Amino acid sequence: MLEKKVIGLLVIMLAIGYLAGSIGSYGEASGQVEVTASLRRAKLQVLGIYFSPNGGCEDQILNWINNANASIHILIYSFTLDLVSDALISAHQRGIEVEVVFEKQQITEYSEYQKLRAAGVPVRNDTNPDLMHDKIMIVDGIIVLTGSFNYSVAAEEENNENLIVIKSTDVATTYEQEFQKIWNQSV
């Protein structure tokens, strides 16, 4: 338990350090986004840090989907959790803008891609010739869920993965810009 707390504190310190500009910025040539001055000053609140297996990651994803008021935008590598796709379909049916980009190599018979598509949820395939390895959900332009947690049974029940929930309009805006870039390039 102490190890998880130490890891959690390190994740928070890295996130805050990054956003405060103490880690620095990266040039476009490296494929990473430069940290802008406004993002360095971003006010953020870490709402929770979760670890799997069975550490509350799936519950947090469901919580934020069920409490969304306007939009849910997702970039996801692996997505096989039925409860998450059910919640997204329900959100879509109650008028929430739901858009999901899947890693094309992970769209199999186990993927939730076809289920969401059949329910009318806008879904797209990433067109990056390499992997789109993101695991990001942006809710209402202010909440970001990110980390290594895939939306999969293995991630929830077997793998050591993590999820951090951040409340920040500035952070969400930066993630939303990346979402829009990938969404617009996807099919």
Reading side by side through the largest sheet, how are the strands ordered? 1-7-6-5-2-3-4
Number of strands: 7
| Tally of alpha and pi helices | 7
Amount of helix: 25-40%
Task: Count the domains.
Answer: 1
Compute the CA-based radius of gyration. Answer: 16 Å
The CATH class, by name, is Alpha Beta
Structural class: alpha/beta
Compute the average pLDDT.
Answer: 84
> Largest beta sheet, briefly?
7 strands, mixed
Brief account:
39% of the residues lie in helices and 21% in strands. It has 187 residues and is an alpha/beta fold. Strand 5 (135-139) and strand 6 (143-147) form a beta hairpin.
Describe the structure.
The chain has 187 residues and is of the alpha/beta class. The chain is built from 7 helices and 7 strands; from the N terminus they run ααβαβαβαβββαβα. It has a 7-stranded mixed β-sheet with strand order 1-7-6-5-2-3-4, with helices on both faces. α3 (57-66) packs parallel to α4 (82-93). The longest helix is centred in the N-terminal third of the chain and has 19 residues, at 2-20. The model is unreliable at 5-35 (pLDDT under 50).
Structure characteristics:
alpha/beta; 7 strands; single chain; globular; Endonuclease, Chain A; 187 residues; 21% strand; 7 helices
